[in-house]
Amino acid sequence: MSDTEEQPVETSGETGESGDAPEPGTADSAVEEAAKTTPRGVPLRIQNLRKEFGGITAVADASFQVEAGSLTGLIGPNGAGKSTTFNCIAGVHRPTSGKVFFQGEDITGLRPEQVANKGLVRTFQIAREMEDMTVLENMMLAPRGQVGESLFNSVVPGIPAPRFLDDSQRQRWERVVPQGRRAVTRQEEDLRERAWETLEFFEIDHLAGEYAGSLSGGQRKLLEMARVLMTDPEMVLLDEPLAGVNPTLEKKLLKRVHDLREEGLTFLLVEHDMDVIMNNCEHIIVMHQGTVLAEGEADDIRNDDRVIDAYLGETI
Ligand SMILES: Nc1ncnc2c1ncn2[C@@H]1O[C@H](COP(=O)(O)OP(=O)(O)OP(=O)(O)O)[C@@H](O)[C@H]1O
C-alpha cells in the first residue's frame, strides 16, 4: 500500500474525487434487501465494490465478507486493489459503485470519522502535530468526539460569575459551575486510567511521558494500535501494521491482536508478509486485478493454482 493513500481520520472522505455511489442511507430496495440478507455474525460485507480514478479501475468488482471475531487477511499482488478496497471501507475513498455494509448497516460513502463512530476503525499514522505531544496525551486525545471536547473543557480555567448577576443568580452560578467541572474531571480521570491500562497492555507504559515523535518505528505501531483501542472499536482495519517492526515487537503486536480477537474484536489485515498472513489469519481473501480471486484457509490459498499464477513465482 502506498503511503500517499494515508489520510488522517479527521479529514473528509471526500477526497476531491467524483463518486457516483449513492448517498449513504439512501432508501433503495436493493440495499435494503442486501442488508436484510447480511447474516448475523458478519460485521463487514462488501458488495460489488468498484472504484475508478479517472480512467483507471483500481477495484473492478469486489465482493466479500468478514466474520465476527475473525482475523481475516486481505492479500494480493502489487496493484491488486487492496489499498483502494481498504480505503473505500474506511471512508477515505467514496466507491464509484457497490456497497459497504457494517453490522447490516449501509455505510457506503460515510466519512472516516463517521465510519469510526460506527465502531469500524482503522489504524492511522501519528499525525505531525501529535508528535510534539506525549504518548499519554496521544492516547487521551484518541477518542475524539466522545470525550475530546470535555477534555478540552477540563483544561480551560474556571469561568468566574459575570458581574451583572444578582446575589441569588451568583449563588446558583457558583453551585452549578464547580459541579460541571468536577464531572469533567472525573471523565478525564477515567480516560487517563484507560489510557494507562491500554499502554500497559501493549507494554509501552514506560514511554507514557515521551514525545510521540521520539518513538521508534515499532513503538509507533504499538501506539497506533493502542490509540485505536481507546475508541472502543468493534472491528479494526489493520493496514500493514508490521511494516518496519522488529521481530520482538512483531511477536508482541500479533499476540495482542490474538488476545483482542479472543475478546470478540474483529480484524481485517492487509499485510505483504505472507508468513504473517498464513500463520495468523484463519480466513484469507486474495485480490487480483480489482476482484476477489480466491478465499479460504491458509492451506486452500497456498495450493490454489489461480493464486500461484497471480503471484507468478512470489513465494506464498
Ligand atoms: N489515487 C489513485 N489514482 C490513480 N490510480 C490509483 C490511485 N490509487 C490506486 N490507483 C491504481 O489502482 C490500482 C490498485 O492500486 P492499489 O493501491 O489499491 O493496489 P494494492 O493491491 O494495494 O497494491 P500494493 O500492494 O502495491 O500496495 C493500481 O493500478 C494503482 O496504480
Summary tags:
316 residues, alpha/beta, six-stranded mixed sheet, Rossmann fold, binds adenosine-5'-triphosphate, disordered N terminus, 2 domains, 11 helices, four-stranded antiparallel sheet
The low-pLDDT segments are 1-22, 144-158
Helical content (DSSP H or I, runs of 4+): 25-40%
Order of strands, widest sheet: 6-7-8-3-9-10
Number of helix segments? 11
User: Major beta sheet, specifics?
Assistant: 6 strands, mixed
If you compute it from the alpha carbons, what radius of gyration comes out, rounded to the nearest whole angstrom? 22 Å
Percentage of β-strand residues: 15-25%
What is the CATH architecture annotation of the largest domain?
3-Layer(aba) Sandwich
Domain unit count: 2
Q: CATH fold name of the largest domain, please? A: Rossmann fold
Task: Compute the separation of the termini in Å.
Answer: 18 Å
Secondary-structure element order, N to C = HEEEHEEHEHHHHEHEHEEHH
Q: What is the count of β-strands?
A: 10
Mean pLDDT: 80
Give the ligands present.
adenosine-5'-triphosphate
* CATH class bucket of the largest domain: Alpha Beta
Shape: globular
Plain-language structure description:
The chain has 316 residues and is of the alpha/beta class. It has two domains: 26-119 and 233-311, Rossmann fold (3-Layer(aba) Sandwich); 128-231, no CATH class. It is 38% helix and 19% strand. It has eleven helices and ten strands. The chain has helices spanning 29-36, 82-90, 112-117, 135-140, 148-155, 167-201, 217-229, 247-262, 274-280, 298-302, 305-311, and strands spanning 44-53, 56-66, 71-75, 97-102, 105-106, 120-122, 235-239, 266-270, 283-288, 291-296. The strands form two sheets. It has a six-stranded mixed beta sheet with strand order 6-7-8-3-9-10, sandwiched between helices. The longest helix is centred in the middle third of the chain and has 35 residues, at 167-201. It is globular, with a radius of gyration of 22 Å. The model is unreliable at 1-22 and 144-158 (pLDDT under 50). Adenosine-5'-triphosphate (ATP) is lined by residues 1-2, 53, 56, 58, 76, 78-84.
